[in-house]
């Protein structure tokens, strides 16, 4: 069983593409794919054909086992006393189902003070929310961020 290619002429390139769906996450978090090609050649017409097998080089694909894909950035790399840092946190639902009851919590770093009413959600200012106490985000639909 396999994919029959037929005869390949000298210097001819044959390209095969196929897709797979991840159904389980391997213990090491990496999907390794190695194929093989069986072929017959007759380099010397005075000798019988030779049947050989060669393996493709392995291709390793890391599975990002994230459901919500959190990311965080800061608007400053260097600060001084009394400077303000704005943190931006994004989430994206990478699943095919809705995620519900989402709460984001972020303890305020030592040496900083949270600025009340500085929280925005999707650009909309919100009041009375504190990341150290948890910010309810509700529901994310598939592919929504």
UniProtKB/TrEMBL annotation:
- Domain DUF11 as annotated: residue spans: 71-127
Q: Which InterPro entries match?
A: Adhesion_dom_sf (IPR008966), Chlamydia_OmcB (IPR051172), DUF11_rpt (IPR047589), OmcB-like_DUF11 (IPR001434)
- Which Gene3D superfamilies does the UniProt record give? 2.60.40.740
* Pfam families to which the protein is assigned, alphabetical: DUF11
Q: What is this protein called?
A: DUF11 domain-containing protein
Q: What does the organism's lineage look like at the top?
A: Bacteria, Bacillati, Bacillota, Bacilli, Bacillales
